[in-house]
Specification:
Shape: elongated
Distance between the termini: 48 Å
Number of strands: 0
Structural class: mainly alpha
Order of helices and strands: HHHHHH
Helix content: over 70%
Number of helices: 6
Strand content: under 5%
């Protein structure tokens, strides 16, 4: 199965959102010694924005427009990277105060990304590819490859997202349980975190 445009596109998103963004944020957070303006780092809006952007940019009409316009494609990649940076910073900061909120954000985001991967991997027909798109995006001469490319892109998402978001959730839960053990465990009437 040859690697096509959609597979390359998804690999770029996964590298930016699931590797580069968390690594940049961890490095920046360490340099800042965990200090940041509380108003700038909110977990719920960061989670919502990331989910809206990933689904919004991957609506077929929006994706096709971005495929035809280099400026729009750059805006897609930049907005997804920046929203991922905000999300990962919010997760890291929230994990220091309470564990259930970053766990919920990680699991919800991971599920929403996996759902997009499922749609790509198991759709029997191309979702994005149409003969109206420029050949730089999809080769109009080989529509069968469109489905294979789409399925491979979906499988990439289905592999990477659970690994990254699941690992982050496990590390967050581990930190939370260690803090509970250190502080004497659960007590009635006591707030976690």
């Amino acid at each position: 199965m040859a690697e096509g445009f959609l597979t390359q596109h998804m690999a770029a998103h996964l590298a930016a959102m699931n590797m580069a963004a968390p690594l940049c944020v961890v490095a920046w957070d360490r340099l800042a010694h965990g200090r940041a303006a509380a108003d700038a780092i909110r977990l719920l809006p960061a989670t919502a924005l990331q989910a809206v952007l990933i689904w919004g940019w991957h609506l077929p009409a929006v994706f096709a427009a971005a495929c035809r316009s280099p400026a729009l494609a750059a805006a897609m990649h930049l907005s997804l990277f920046l929203s991922a940076c905000w999300f990962w910073l919010a997760v890291i900061r929230a994990a220091r105060r309470a564990a259930w909120t970053p766990l919920a954000a990680l699991l919800a985001t991971g599920k929403l990304f996996c759902l997009l991967g499922v749609l790509l991997a198991f759709s029997p027909r191309p979702i994005y590819a149409t003969p109206a798109l420029p050949p730089a995006c999809f080769d109009p001469a080989s529509p069968r490859l469109w489905v294979e490319d789409q399925q491979l892109a979906g499988l990439l998402m289905l592999t990477a997202c659970p690994l990254v978001y699941g690992t982050a959730a496990i590390l967050t839960a581990r930190r939370w349980l260690a803090a509970l053990a250190r502080d004497g465990g659960w007590r009635l009437g006591r707030r976690a975190g």
